[in-house]
Amino acid sequence: MNKQIRTLIVDDSALVRDILSEGLSQDPEIVVIGTAADPYQARDILVIEKPDVITLDIEMPRMDGITFLKRYMSVLPTPTIIVSSLTEGNKHLSMDALEAGAVDIVSKPTSGLKDSLTIMMTELIHKIKIAATVNVSKTRPSQTFVKTSHLPTHSPEESTNRVIAIGSSTGGTEALARIIPSFPAFCPGIVIVQHMPADYTASLAERLDRLAQMKVKEAENGDLVHSGQVLIAPGGMNHMKIHRFGSHYRVRLVSGEPVSSHRPSVDVLFSSIADAVGENAIAVLLTGMGRDGADGLLQIKHAGGRTFVQDEKTSVVWGMPKVAWEMNAAEAKISLQDIPRIVIKAIKRT
Fold first, then answer.
1. What is the largest CA-CA distance in the chain?
2. What is the pTM of this model?
3. Active site residue 116
4. What is the pLDDT of residue 139?
5. Tens of pLDDT along 242-265?
6. Active-site pick, 52, 104, 267, 292
7. Residue 148: what pLDDT?
8. Catalytic site residue 104?
9. From 195, 226, 239, 262, the catalytic residue
């Protein structure tokens, strides 16, 4: 039997601690080594027990979860999953937590706790197993960028037949925060699928928009893909596809079963890019667990597009990129910091 994943639960609600402890203990691969009602109790357990994974609430007495996260990540970096109620304030705080080094987010049910519990626990168990494989040294906070007001080097009408597609999962929010600001203001349109819970992608888009030279927004059905804009697929119920309408490309949000275990799925986006954009596509598959995006990346390559994957050294989890690389779906694997430069070079050569 493999070594169990030693997990610490931190939440100010005794009910939630009991529910999480009981639910996680049902999985033979996970053992709960302690629970804490606040960061001060958690600190003592963390120092003594050194858990493999921490589940962390945001709003707690005596010290908030993000402050605690920042403190222990600097001295005892530990893969951490934010388990928080889905409120407008907490959505933004959860993004702050990801920026501070948290691996992922799980939303507490806001109503019908018992009815939603099985779904939440299944998701949490899955993400704990992923978190246990993460090298948290690669989840360091992104550098601070300042949005510039430099004049564009070319007009937004240029290169409208080009589309850049990006897929990412675990570690992807920080990877995106590091590369999106480096794309010039009137770069060809970028479309992104980042695996996130429903209702969090809008906060991700807002955060990236504050950093980027391009305009970043959560995609809506019918949005035009054009130079100077980044569109992020909304988390939740729909897949995102790109379709050609005359000389333009537009977004379609479509219902459907999960593909490669995800909705929205990178494979669905990339497959539509292969069909609609073909040789004018440039696609990149970033850090993430599993294989979502690998098949779609291969389709883009076969359609004549340029394809790349993030390398193992800079990936938080080299899962999705590894599968794609082993399938020969990418022409090169490149470090995170080099992605904008290589993509821009590819645009000029296509």
1. 63
2. 0.89
3. no
4. 63
5. 999 988 999 999 999 999 999 999
6. 292
7. 45
8. no
9. 195
